[in-house]
Here is the input.
Amino acid sequence: MEKLGDFLERFKGWLEIPLFKLGGMQFTLWSLLYILLLFAALLYVTAKLKQLMVGRILANGYVEMGTREAIASLLRYVLVTLGFIIILDTAGIDLSSLTVLAGALGIGVGFGLQYLTSNMVSGLVILIARPIKLGDRIEVGEVRGDVISISLRATTVLTNDNIAIIVPNSEFTSKTVVNWSYTDRDVRFRIPVGVAYGSDPEKVKALLLETAHENPGVLGDPGPDVLLESFGDSSLNFELRVWTREYTSRPGKLRSELNFAILKKFSEHGVQIPFPQRDLHIRSGLPGTTPKDEAKVE
Here is the structure.
């Protein structure tokens, strides 16, 4: 028993060996172990609390997974910060002695985390105001695709090429965002079509509507319609307007299918696609020429 007591006394002495001094505080091996062990326990408890909030507490209401994750993560950050301050205080560390050091460090970290803070604040705005949500078809800058994930820092957009692009949340609050499915997935596409002069406009309109109705991706309600847009230099310019829900994420595919079908339909019914035409008047430029010397070439 005496040997065990002596060992404990020596072990306690080892724990009390000064390691370094910061401000007016003397750090020992024991104080460091105390802080690290409690901080590890704090991280473990807050992680379990986050899982509980995401899986049970917030899951009871109509809250999307991305929103649940963001709220739970923000709460965990707050709890970890407050818990770490309490741990330092119970360890006997005078926090006032670290004020100057923390202030200087805070300024440097503040500049470094300015962009990250901007993204996190923007993430909160997105999650609360919900200008975009999971499954939306969006365009921001050069990025176009479907939203598959929203976090506090960034939003993940999946393109039609199956490429996931991580977009910082500040992009959604500082730039114009096009949301193709903000209210629903129904979107109208405009297909320009030019036909040669001399074509029967009513026949062209009927053929375009017939082509649209034959495509299974075009909605019947609201139905397609056709406009005679303008009289071009070489063509009568029509516009076929169709609504779709199936091809909201693949607009290029629908346009291609309709263009192929229109070309085939026109070919079957003798409607010509125009080519550019110009009238040229050529003068010889020789002395003594008259207007009769002009030649007209079409």
About this structure: The longest strand covers residues 187-195. The chain is about 45% helix and 20% strand.
